[in-house]
Each structure stands twice: as C-alpha cells, then as structure tokens.
Design brief:
CATH architecture of the largest domain: 2-Layer Sandwich
Structural class: alpha+beta
Strand content: 25-35%
CATH superfamily of the largest domain: ATP-grasp fold, B domain
Number of strands: 18
Largest sheet: 6 strands, antiparallel
Number of domains: 3
Distance between the termini: 12 Å
C-alpha cells in the first residue's frame, strides 16, 4: 500500500477552494489502495495532519473561517515527522492553488525532500503561474496570445485609450484581483486590486469572442484531451471568482462546444503546444478565446486546476470518457515511485 500525502490549503486566496477540492478528491479516490495522510497548510503557514472526518465535514461554499485543527508536523527527507515519529511518504498530491501552492514553491520544496509528487515540477509551475511568461513561451511554439502590457506596482501610467480592458495580476489564479475597466475612473482602483495579489499587473484588451477551455491529461501512458467547453456568463460580466466557485448559476457550460472539426483540432493542438512549452506534467486546463474572425488566442494555463463539484477540469475530463474516480487514479499512477521508496 502506497503512503500518500494529500496537501491542501496554502497561503493564497484560493485556500478554501483547495480544501473543497481535497474533500471531493478523498471522497472519490480508491481509498483502500492508499495509506492516506491529509496535510493541511493552514493560514499561519503551519503544516497539520488532519482527519478525514474533519475534512469531509466542510461546506462546499468557500468559508474563510475554516479551522481543521490537527496536529502540527514538519517535513523531512522522504517523509514527515509527527512529534517523535517519522512517517515515510511515497507520493504527494499537492492539491494547492495560487501563491505558494502552484507557483513552484511547494514543488521545489518537495523536490528537495525527495518526495515524488503529481503535477507540474518547479520550472513548469513557475512558468505556468506567470501569465506573461506562459504567453512568451507559447508564442515560441506558434500559439497566438492575447496582447498584453505589464505594469509594476507603484508605476504611474495612464489608462489605455482603447477601453474596455482587463487588469489582472500576472501571477495569480481563479480570477482573484481581476477587474474589467470600462472607463478611466476605474483604472487606478483596478491596478490596486491586481497589486494586492502580486507586484505585477497585466493589462489586456477585452476580447470579443467565445471563452473556450480544454482539459489535458498525460498519465505517462496516454495523452487525453477533452472536448472544448464554452463558458457563457449570463449573470456575470466575466468568469470571476464568484462565477467559478461560489455559484454555478449565471454561468453556462456548453460542452462539447459548438466547434468545427478544424477548430477542435486547432484547439487541441494549441493546448498541447502550451502544455509542452512550459514543460508541464500530468494535468492542466488551458483557456482560450475564439474571436469572431476565428482566431484562437491563449488566455492562460492552469497547472493545478480545481477539483470541486463545479470545477471545469473534472467536468471536461468526464466528457472525454474519464470519470472523476478514474481521473484521480490515473493521476496518482502517473508518477513512477523509486523502488527504494
């Protein structure tokens, strides 16, 4: 039986989403195959070993007051230490999002400790988390991207002449800190919101077109791409944090999206090009805009997408013939554990 550490929580604004994802991950996994350790990275930066029952009891609605309790632990070479006991870890699944969890920090930490883990490694996580770097790498593979400018924190810059535009953090996820700027009076406040998430803001024109997402799975044996899924916001101006995680009402998923065969092939090809351009592993969700003229423009890649009941990644993989429980097992088996472990 493999010893599996499931990491959840973390220091980012996506803390609660990680916990909800972990709850459903545990519920769907083949529990009898693993000696499971749930490790909560709490808001104070402490790693804690928590019970399955406590995690299972949390709500599916994000709650910033969540406290899972648990015993503090520390990581050590190839395992964890709880008080005076060392517990070996064969495999980790860092089900973490945003700053600290998806930007290469926890990946570099696990690599240093010699703990194999599912998902993108250090380099791919750094590149995937930084939207500007992702786009630069993708462009080298011939992928078209939404044009952008970067604004460092504290810079004094006039609003773009062509509005509306989006202002977003260059290194954050789940649409945290994203604003739609419709007039010059919204500009400075939008920059401040983006800078709350990180020191660099990205400014992009508002693209007129369809928002198309695709889920990718590379389990080491096969590569599977889902059909494209189209996001249509009916009660939201854009696909915001609330639209993604708080309520699925007001957001329609059309899946499979109404695409021509040529558009579907182009979508899959571009998605794998983005995936490979940053050296991603195991899984990703890649988001594009399809313009009225038929041009496919990269928006971003998510190297550790959500696994909540309304998350796009598992929903799209279901359409590809990979149900949630099978998806988890494929991901856990995508890592070759050293025989000495």
């Amino acid at each position: 039986m493999k010893s599996l550490a499931l990491l959840c929580g973390g220091p980012s604004g996506e803390h609660e989403i990680s916990l909800i994802s972990a709850k459903h991950f545990v519920r769907a996994m083949k529990r009898e195959l693993y000696d499971l350790r749930i490790i909560w990275w709490d808001r104070d930066g402490v790693f804690r070993l928590v019970s399955e029952d406590r995690l299972a009891a949390i709500s599916d609605q994000p709650d910033q007051s969540l406290d899972l309790g648990g015993q503090p632990l520390r990581f050590e070479k190839a395992g964890i230490r709880l008080k005076e006991s060392s517990i070996p870890i064969d495999l980790a699944f860092p089900l973490l999002h945003g700053t600290g969890g998806e930007d290469g920090r926890i990946q570099g930490f696990l690599e240093t400790l010699g703990i194999p883990f599912v998902g993108a490694g250090l380099r791919a996580s750094v590149l995937g988390m930084d939207k500007a770097l992702t786009k630069l790498m993708a462009q080298r593979r011939g992928v078209n991207v939404i044009p952008f400018e970067l604004v460092r924190q504290g810079a004094r810059l006039a609003a773009p002449k062509n509005l509306p535009c989006f202002v977003k953090p260059s290194g954050s996820g789940s649409s945290l800190g994203v604003s739609l700027v419709k007039s010059e009076k919204d500009w400075e406040e939008a920059l401040k919101e983006a800078w709350k998430q990180g020191p660099v803001a990205m400014v992009e024109p508002k693209v007129v077109g369809r928002e198309i997402e695709i889920a990718l799975l590379d389990d080491g044996q096969n590569r599977i791409a889902s059909p494209g899924g189209e996001i249509r916001c009916t009660d939201f101006e854009f696909y915001s944090y609330d639209a993604k995680y708080v309520s699925s009402k007001g957001v329609d998923l059309i899946a499979p999206a109404d695409l021509t065969d040529e558009q579907a092939r182009s979508l899959e090809s571009a998605a794998w090009s983005v995936f490979d351009s940053i050296g991603c592993q195991a899984l990703a969700r890649v988001d594009f805009f399809l313009t009225e003229s038929g041009e496919l423009l990269l928006n971003e890649i998510n190297t550790m997408p959500g696994f909540t009941p309304i998350s796009m990644y598992p929903r799209l993989m279901q359409l590809a013939g990979v149900p949630y429980s099978e998806l988890i097992e494929r991901l856990l088996n995508s890592i070759q554990i050293p025989k000495s472990a």
